Amino acid sequence: xxxxxxxxxxxxxxxxxxxxxxxxxxxxxxxxxxxxxxxxxxxxxxxxxxxxxxxxxxxxxxxxxxxxxxxxxxxxxxxxxxxxxxxxxxxxxxxxxxxxxxxxxxxxxxxxxxxxxxxxxxxxxxxxxxxxxxxxxxxxxxxxxxxxxxxxxxxxxxxxxxxxxxxxxxxxxxxxxxxxxxxxxxxxxxxxxxxxxxxxxxxxxxxxxxxxxxxxxxxxxxxxxxxxxxxxxxxxxxxxxxxxxxxxxxxxxxx
Length: 255
Hints:
One of its GO terms (cellular component) is cytoplasm. It holds the Pfam family DUF34_NIF3. The chain has 255 residues and is an alpha/beta fold. It has ten helices and eleven strands.
């Protein structure tokens, strides 16, 4: 199997074409020839210098990440761009990226992974963006307090020792949960409109505090990195099912 074959299969599985006009990241193969032979695939959240170097050290032929190295175009391959691209080329390491498609996929995506951890029922797409969805919503099997929900997340995702933050402005117990991983507080109003008791995301913005308090909804901030490890881990399982050797590269940021 070569990088082109894998990219095509992942593109089809994740429906990357549907997000082409709304994603700042070009999804698919970002670096490397499609003809690159692939036996070993590494998976990481970020295509940073450290993860590229560790993928090369592991002997990977392809690195699959959620955050790539191109955002809205790349005018020059200098500075940080060069430090990321050079080791990919030097080590014959191709790079495949799945950004918003991996956020929104309803079984393999980041939000779906959080929903799996929480055992949510009655799931539906959430987080509307340009006609597509980048999140998921569902219902807890039993009502619980927002503190109990936050404790569950803190025990199941890699927060790098950082506490899960809670904006505790909603009902005494929660059942209806909305999820947009990473930086998802911009979907707070949609969560309110869908009668969610809590919005789970990764990181917050100043405005979210007042909006959540005024709207009477909880917000759980479980870490941008932590909430976006689940999608690439799902893709790792897919690659293993295809008979490929895999390596997961954990590089937590605590953010």
